[in-house]
Amino acid sequence: MSYGIEHTAHKDYTGAKIGMWLFLFTEFFLFFGPVLLYTIYRFRYHAAFTASSHELDLAIGSINTAILLTSSLTMAVSISALQRDRTKLSLWMLAATFVLGVVFLINKYFEWTEKFSHGMYPGGEALAGGPPGQGVFYGLYFFLTGLHGLHVLAGITAIGVLAFMVLKKKVSAADHVRLENAGLYWHLVDVVWIYLFPIFYLVR
Amino acid sequence: MSIRESYLESGPGSKLASWIFSTDHKRIGLLYLAVIMSLFFVGVTLGFLMRLELITRGPTIMEAQTYNSLFTLHGVIMLFIFIIPVTTSVFGNFMLPIMIGARDVAFPRLNLLSWWIFVAGTILAITTLILGPADTGWTFYAPYSLISGQYVALAVFAVFVLGLSSILTGINMVTTVHRLRAPGMTWHRLPLFVWAIYATAWILVIATPILGVNLLMIIAERFFGIGVFDPAKGGDPILYQHLFWIYSHPAVYVMILPSLGVIAEIIPVFSRKTVFGYKAIAYSSIGIAALGSLVWGHHMFVSGYSYTAGVIFSLFTFLVAIPSAVKVYNFVGTMYKGSIVVDTPFYFVLAFIYMFAVGGLTGVILGALSINIHLHDTYFVVAHFHYIKFGAAALGFFAALHYWFPKVFGRMYNRRFANWSLLIFFIGFNLLFLPMFVLGYEGMPRRYFDYLPQYANLQYLSIFGSWVLVIGIAMMFGNLIKGLFRGKPAPQNPWGAATLEWQVPSPPPKENFREIPEVKHNPYHFENVRRELD
Lengths: 204, 534
Known about the structure:
- The structure holds two protein chains of two kinds.
- Chain A is 81% helix and 0% strand.
- Chain A is mainly alpha-helical.
- Chain A has one domain (14-202): Cytochrome c oxidase, subunit III, four-helix bundle (Four Helix Bundle (Hemerythrin (Met), subunit A), Up-down Bundle), CATH 1.20.120.
- Chain B is mostly helical.
- Chain B has a single domain (28-503), classed as Cytochrome C Oxidase, Chain A (Up-down Bundle), CATH 1.20.210.
- Chain B is built from 16 helices and two strands.
- Helices cover 67% and strands 1% of the residues of chain B.
- At the A-B interface, helix 1 and helix 6 of A face helix 1, helix 7, helix 8 and helix 9 of B.
């Protein structure tokens, strides 16, 4: 039920895109803050940060990067398919994106629990005894990858909802901007990881 | 349909639901007004009690711990719930779409969602009031905010939720201005209030997320001890201050810019003359927004950072005074050789200009490095920011209330009474805050629950001022509420203004315009309009 005036006549494709880009902008700044802290602490605790990044599992990190990049591809294909009215292909690609997102989170779960089992979590015994830079490194690592994980979760939820809407023809070739915006969001989640992966795993 | 229904008429069905689920930008504006004003009165009460506590030295009506909670809550409510959102959410919502000739904002449902999120944040803030209010000050500085035994995480989360609401409103306003301007409404024909809201919305979009993530880190610190701000674990609390002020200084401009926009609307109408230096005022809004993003470090002159950084932040602080002064010059320049009609909103403008000048100039004083060391964290700072945030920003909102009241509600308040209430407000305000400049200069620190005997006389004067101020506020709002129910019906264009909102009936019809108007003149072209009040 809507209590406002009728908005049926007003469908603004460009407006919807502007709104989404502005929102992505705010998401970018959300991650910018802690990454700024990372940069400063890296200068201050250079040795501890280098040592700590060696402790992260480069293999799982690389696999997760590959997974997210592939999921961005399937998302893009899904949008192109819908624009060409190939609904079935679009749905399959959405399903693939969804599954890849879930696999990413499962990997992350194993990666985190492995660290926890060694007492490497904020307040854990392994970090309490280490140099101060190590604690800050893991504090930022868990905060940033955790925040990113929440965004992956939000992204796959959005993709699930969108798949349902495509199935019900509420989002279609004629009116696909919502799928496009969900795609933009998913790419943002991907881009954020593209920054997090090198700063935690690769810069050693 | 010959008679168009006003937006205040409800159809059949639940009246409450027709308001709280409305996607009409006008109704949402009033929803904000209702919530924000209720909390404003809570904030006023807290401030009043803080002053009252200081009437004798030592504990009078509360203990030190309660006093700490009181100034924290007073700050959180007045800043995050009242002055940051108020003008943008109430009049930005209500007036901006009509002023640019649109039927609604770009995302009406998102707009409603923003309000609901805002209400959720407000409820969270009130919950902390009941459970055990934070005692950290509204800035939540680490490391104390990490160890305080009060409900700090909940208060911080409330502010985070309110910030989310701000971000969504900001996105909505920017998109609306870009996409929904009526034909002929070019950028240089936008009313100056629209420019001001546009600049404000950009600050909200750019700066709020930094505050948001900073607050999330405080929550993560409290629950998990991630150690990024905790010196015991190698973190640096100064970095918290940086991230906090990167948002919270631009937030000062979020408070004042919409009010400057309101003033820029009112002056030409009552001077019957096009605004002096339209482009200068419009671009100075953008200039303030841009420069204001580069001065956050002036809150940290004594926190301990590099001298070079201090000099740069001080320089930029001085520079912000330029676009601010451009505005004041243009306001006065607009009045020059105009045929001024003195009426209630115009009195508010005059009071505003005085308050803004005092607040602004003392801000420049505080921006000087050497003087800042003496005045930092004293009553001088308290007086300065109350002149800007309360005396100027909130008074600008009150001016907007008195200017647009007949349009919003279709009724007129008692204008003579409103003038008297303003006078009492003005006297009370200055009695309350002028002595604080002197107290601060003499060394009275802010946030102290006690004071030395030599400060007693000026404290009494300031406390007496708070009583006068409260009487002024009570008169002002009593009068408006009476006008709301018993006021005479207002004409369509009481003040004789030329902007689009005055070319539709009072109160505006549901769809704003029967046909989207075509704009042919700048917004201060007074040839074809006349004042409809005697």
